[in-house]
């Protein structure tokens, strides 16, 4: 039954979904890669199917084996409308995969302009870095680079300028946008989990 539901999700087959619901199918059933019907519908851009699953109570934050969730799947394939609905359902715009990838990193890495614009409008962090230390700017395709650069510039302008008194902060290194402070061994990174 779950294999049929996963296929229906990829194809956006609402009638098959309704039949599965009537038969008592587990709407959060996972395939061998721990992907749920919600993940596959998001990956395929099946917005109406995503809406139906969420209305039926499927958890928006459910994660696959690599901690990718429905938002990651949608933006990686450039499905901005689907991503918009998932964000409206409450998923955090800067949620991360196991490798520390944010939805913005995935969308920018594929050059999906509409998805990048949506995420930036929803306040995605353009200065985020993944666990390898790569920034959104490092990962982005040329077609979205101006959007990321503009967002980084706006972020830099909005951050309050620190007024230092003489001698205060001497010897401290300033952090640039996109650069992350190194943590001491054992110190919590404080990153969002892939929920």
Could you provide a short overview of the structure?
By secondary structure, this protein is an all-alpha fold. The chain is 44% helix and 0% strand.
Can you offer a commentary on this structure?
- The protein is mostly helical and 195 residues long.
- It has a single domain, classed as Serine Threonine Protein Phosphatase 5, Tetratricopeptide repeat, CATH 1.25.40.
- 44% of the residues lie in helices and 0% in strands.
- It is built from 10 helices and no strands.
- It has helices at residues 2-11, 14-22, 37-43, 47-55, 70-76, 80-88, 103-110, 113-121, 136-139, 145-158.
- Helix 1 (2-11) packs parallel to helix 3 (37-43) and helix 3 runs antiparallel to helix 4 (47-55).
- It is elongated and about 55 Å long.
- The two termini are 26 Å apart.
- One of its GO terms (molecular function) is ubiquitin-protein transferase activity.
- Residues 149-167 have a biased composition (Low complexity).
- Residues 171-183 have a biased composition (Basic residues).
- ANK repeats lie at residues 1-32, 33-65, 66-98, 99-131.
- One of its GO terms (biological process) is protein K6-linked ubiquitination.
In the CATH hierarchy, the third-tier topology is known as Serine Threonine Protein Phosphatase 5, Tetratricopeptide repeat
Q: What can be said about the biggest beta sheet? A: none
Question: Uncertain regions: pLDDT < 50 for 5+ in a row?
Answer: 162-166, 168-195
- The total count of strands amounts to 0
* pLDDT averaged over residues: 86
Helical segment tally? 10
List the secondary-structure elements in sequence, H or E: HHHHHHHHHH
- Specify the CATH class: Mainly Alpha
Which percent bin holds the helix content?
40-55%
Question: For the terminal residues, how far apart are their CA atoms?
Answer: 26 Å
Which class do the helix and strand fractions yield?
Answer: mainly alpha
């Amino acid at each position: 039954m779950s294999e049929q539901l996963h296929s229906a999700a990829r194809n956006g087959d609402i009638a098959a979904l309704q039949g599965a619901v009537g038969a008592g199918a587990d709407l959060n059933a996972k395939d061998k890669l721990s992907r749920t019907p919600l993940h596959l519908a998001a990956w395929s851009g099946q917005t109406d199917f995503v809406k139906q699953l969420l209305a039926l109570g499927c958890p928006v934050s459910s994660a696959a084996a690599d901690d990718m969730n429905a938002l990651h799947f949608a933006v990686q394939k450039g499905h901005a409308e689907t991503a918009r609905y998932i964000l409206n359902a409450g998923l955090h715009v800067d949620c991360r995969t196991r490798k520390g990838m944010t939805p913005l990193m995935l969308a920018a890495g594929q050059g999906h302009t509409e998805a990048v614009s949506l995420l930036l409008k929803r306040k995605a962090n353009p200065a985020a870095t993944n666990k390898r230390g790569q920034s959104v700017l490092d990962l982005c395709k040329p077609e979205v680079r101006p959007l990321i650069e503009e967002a980084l510039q706006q972020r830099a302008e909005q951050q309050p300028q620190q007024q230092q008194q003489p001698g205060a902060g001497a010897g401290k290194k300033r952090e640039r946008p996109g650069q992350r402070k190194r943590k001491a061994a054992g110190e919590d990174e404080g990153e969002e989990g892939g929920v």
